Fold:
Amino acid sequence: MALKTPDQYIQSIADLRLRIYLFGEPVEDYTTHPIIRPSLDCMAMTYELARLPEYESLMLATSHLTGEKVNRFTHIHQSVEDLVRKVKMQRLLGQRTGSCFQRCVGMDALNAVYSVTYETDQAEGTGYHERFRSFVRDVQERDLTVDGAMTDPKGDRGLPPHRQPDPDMYVHVVERRDDGIVVRGAKAHQTGACNSHEVLVMPTIAMREGDEDYAVCFSTPANAEGILYIYGRQSCDTRKIERSELDVGNRRFGGQEALMVFDDVFVPWERVYLDGELAFTGPLVERFAGYHRQSYGGCKVGVGDVLIGASALAAEYNGVAGASHIKDKLVEMNQLNETLFSCGIACSAEGHRTAAGNYQSDLLLSNVCKQNVTRYPYEIARLAEDIAGGLMVTMPSEADFSDEEVGPIVRKYFAGGCDAPTMDRMRVLRLIENLTLGSAAVGYRTESMHGAGSPQAQRIMIARQSNLDHKKELAKVLAGVGEELPTTCPGQHEVAAVAD
Ligand code: SF4
Ligand code: FE
Structure:
């Protein structure tokens, strides 16, 4: 078993010497940069918890390729139980980080590409699956973090990839050589991009005739020549530069998204898993989206647990924990949060075995899960803000609380209604701010809306998967649609007689 320690993981990311831009400048020591480091520490939690015996059944799994214990984030699901444990693991990590811990996109991509390469080979006589298995084995043996990369910039959404005025709006093959392919384009909003060892690139939509150069799936080391990362901003991110413990809200962790640019990157054939197979792009997108929509029934629930806990503490510190409307709001928050968890568990429990032998979450229920995630965290956040009160966005800075002159004044006036120290009250309010409006809100709110596909993408899948024809048949049978009415209804004469 070659599990990395958190320190080994962080050092291995530093060793990649990635090309990262932030605020218009290259970042040399990105693993120590105050804006980037919390996201790296957050990812490192996927390594740290995997080393703790109490979490072994959630964090580790037995590889079907090597028979060794591997981190579940590198595992190819072998049963429904694996799918369920995946969601529970994500809830645990959400609870422990209060943030997006980023490693799931790779796990979801590994599982989607695994089954699609198998089916492509069966249909087309290609040899992708064996190549892919060797990649997965390498990932497992070295305990690597893989960044699943799906979302292209897309340019004009009304045009297919090959008709875009700028052909680079979707990642595509610009050259095919004896030893491999050369690719160009970009992937946007890439979660954990600068914290990953490998990138697994997939098409972003179902491709049609003419899009052959865009129907490409491959993996590449994150530091391959020609790859550039432009780091995304998050709300309140410069508070991390201030190195203020109070004002960041979450002292240790954060998420990360970046624009990943492929400027003529060479990929050897042994790392190419689809090239021109148009018919398999749709299933790949659907399966990856299904897994990632399942994931949200775990990670967002864990972060929701933190937000509910912070709201309950804020109520206590304000001296209103006993108020019936507060208790009711906390019940409402829990009910919404556990509904999301129920969806995550349900789509896992209803998962099925693919032809390749791994397990896929139920696509209809995965999409229902994510559709609910586009709504309930907003309602939970609204209730949290209601309970927290306006002070969460008007309170002074840490510098004021620490100041010799005004410190005692603000501590006096912001004391709460119970014996809790003023500063504990302030800390909890800042955490709620972080989760609902600050940098963690990227992961908890906007990502709940757009991550793993925007709401309309789920509605399309729900429409496709919900089998309306079957439901119409059920109704027809009960109503007797299409059957002639009997010429004389039973009892008709008696009714007529009474009427006379
Ligand atoms: Fe994992 Fe959730 Fe972040 Fe996606 S949004 S990478 S599922 S923590
Ligand atoms: Fe996400």
Summary: The longest helix spans residues 281-318. The two ends are 90 Å apart (CA to CA). Residues 191, 447, 451-452 surround fe (iii) ion (ligand 2) (CB under 6 Å).
